[in-house]
Amino acid sequence: MSVRYLSCGDTAFTIEFGNEISPEINARVMALHAAIGRARTAGELAGLVETVPTMRSLMVTYDPLETSRHTLEPAIEGMIEHGLAADSAGRDVAIPCCYDDPEFAPDLAEVAERTGKPTEQVIANHLASAFKVYVLGFMPGLAYIAGLDPSLVLPRRAEPRVRVPRSSVAIAMDMTTIYPFDSPGGWHLIGRTPLRMFDQRREQPVFLAPGDRLTFQRIDRPTFDGISREVEAGSFDWATLIREA
């Protein structure tokens, strides 16, 4: 698998691992992201500011008064050539989701019709999907989560909505996502979680992170309302959703 190094001005460069979106390529991105993080913790790579993972590449930003691409690139290239250990870091996260209220799942019937499945089978296939967060983007807290069951793959909606409610669970292509804010959106809405993906009241406002492994857990409307009240009051125990790797 070829690796390309691309300049991004005088404070950053990008390392591309391929042109496809695939678990293998993203695994290499995340493995290098973790390896550089360990090197920084050990006091190496002076002047490096941060690394930003994407689906298929890693951006490396640095302070040009302390270091340069000329210095950092060979060090990082050595890590890649030495071999990147698969990064097992990450969390197993369970996301409660209500699929049963038509207000929450306005596209569920259409998804069922277009995929030739009963609505209950669409829900079952979404629940059974092996999801993983690839990257965050578009807006704070919005995760691109790959691994949707192949039988549910659909293109984005032909006409995007002007407003998608916060915490809507949606699918498009081979991915699912959870909208962190009310916003425009073109994905198919099949449920809603009572959780907030972004909440400035938390110590870490963004809940999900690249590398997280997700499962969705079905809840009914009364359970949704109960969790929602706890989230709004700031009393919800987020640790109950997470199992560290």
Quick tags:
2 domains; 4-stranded antiparallel β-sheet; 8-stranded mixed β-sheet; Cyclophilin; alpha+beta; 245 residues; 5 helices; 14 strands; 28% strand; Gyrase A, domain 2
Could you walk me through the main structural features you see in this protein, from its secondary elements to its overall organization?
This protein has 245 residues and is an alpha+beta fold. The protein has 2 domains: 4-82, Gyrase A, domain 2 (2-Layer Sandwich), CATH 3.30.1360.40; 91-244, Cyclophilin-like (Cyclophilin). Helices cover 26% and strands 28% of the residues. It has helices at residues 23-41, 69-82, 108-115, 119-128, 221-233; strands spanning 4-7, 12-16, 48-53, 57-62, 91-97, 131-136, 143-146, 161-164, 168-172, 175-178, 183-185, 188-192, 213-218, 242-244. The protein has an 8-stranded mixed sheet, with helices on one face. Strand 3 (48-53) and strand 4 (57-62) form a beta hairpin. The longest helix is centred in the first third of the chain and has 19 residues, at 23-41.
Strand content: 25-35%
Largest sheet: 8 strands, mixed
Low-pLDDT ranges? none
**Total tally of structural domains:** 2
User: Count of helical segments?
Assistant: 5
CATH class of the largest domain: Mainly Beta
Distance between the termini: 28 Å
Give the second-level CATH assignment, the architecture of the largest domain.
Beta Barrel
What level of helicity do the residues show? Answer: 25-40%
Number of strands: 14
What would you give as the CATH superfamily of the largest domain? Cyclophilin-like
